[in-house]
């Protein structure tokens, strides 16, 4: 009986793994970033809709992924690519004051803009490296 349960569970686990691995790198990183941002949101009266946030983040993540691919095609070295990645830390790229949450028709400032910015930049870095390394 136990062997039968394990045998029945195996196709379910394998099918879930197949679905998770079919996401593109920008989509995967945008989704993980949206989840991390949602988990740091502490207001019990509202919640961040992860799918909508992913959809909003995805164009930027796709652009960074293609930038990584273009840099690889140009023949940039790892050090030159690292210099490009270090530019993501520029505070003018994503000022803390521009970080807002939308709730219906109202805009609210983010609770912890430095941490949200760090999560966003970290996701962009990983996406860039995936594009650069061809993942």
Give the integer mean of the pLDDT values: 76
Q: Cα-atom Rg, whole angstroms?
A: 19 Å
Quote the beta fraction.
5-15%
Gap between N and C termini, in Å? Answer: 41 Å
CA-based shape? globular
The largest sheet, given as strand count, sense and whether it forms a barrel, is: 2 strands, antiparallel
- Summarize the amount of helix as a percent range: 55-70%
Task: Specify the number of helices.
Answer: 5
Q: Uncertain segments of ≥5 residues (pLDDT<50)?
A: none
Number of domains: 1
Q: H/E order of the elements?
A: HHHHEEH
Per DSSP E runs of 2 or more residues, the count of β-strands stands at: 2
Strand order of the largest sheet: 1-2
Structural class: mainly alpha
Protein name: Exc2 family lipoprotein
Keywords: Lipoprotein, Signal
Fill in the keyword field for this structure:
6% strand, two-stranded antiparallel ribbon, globular, single chain, mainly alpha, 135 residues
SSE arrangement:
Blueprint: H1 2-21, H2 25-39, H3 50-74, H4 78-86, E1 100-103, E2 106-109, H5 113-133
Antiparallel strand pairs: 1-2
What is the gist of this entry?
This protein has helices at residues 2-21, 25-39, 50-74, 78-86, 113-133, and strands at 100-103, 106-109. With 135 residues, it is mostly helical. The protein has a two-stranded antiparallel sheet.
Tell me what you see in this structure.
With 135 residues, this protein is mainly alpha-helical. The protein has one domain (24-133). 67% of the residues lie in helices and 6% in strands. The chain is built from five helices and two strands. The protein has helices spanning 2-21, 25-39, 50-74, 78-86, 113-133; strands at 100-103, 106-109. It has a two-stranded antiparallel ribbon. The longest helix is centred in the middle third of the chain and has 25 residues, at 50-74. The mean pLDDT is 76.
């Amino acid at each position: 009986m136990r062997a039968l349960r394990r045998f029945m569970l195996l196709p379910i686990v394998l099918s879930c793994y197949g679905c998770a691995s079919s996401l593109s790198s920008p989509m995967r990183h945008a989704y993980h970033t949206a989840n991390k941002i949602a988990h740091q949101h502490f207001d019990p009266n509202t919640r961040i809709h992860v799918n909508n946030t992913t959809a909003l983040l995805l164009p930027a993540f796709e652009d960074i992924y293609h930038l990584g691919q273009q840099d690889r095609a140009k023949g940039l070295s790892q050090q030159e690519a690292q210099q490009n990645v270090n530019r993501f830390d520029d505070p003018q790229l994503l000022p803390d004051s521009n970080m807002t949450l939308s709730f219906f028709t109202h805009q609210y400032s983010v609770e912890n803009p430095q941490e949200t910015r760090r999560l966003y930049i970290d996701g962009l870095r990983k996406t860039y490296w995936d594009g650069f390394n061809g993942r």
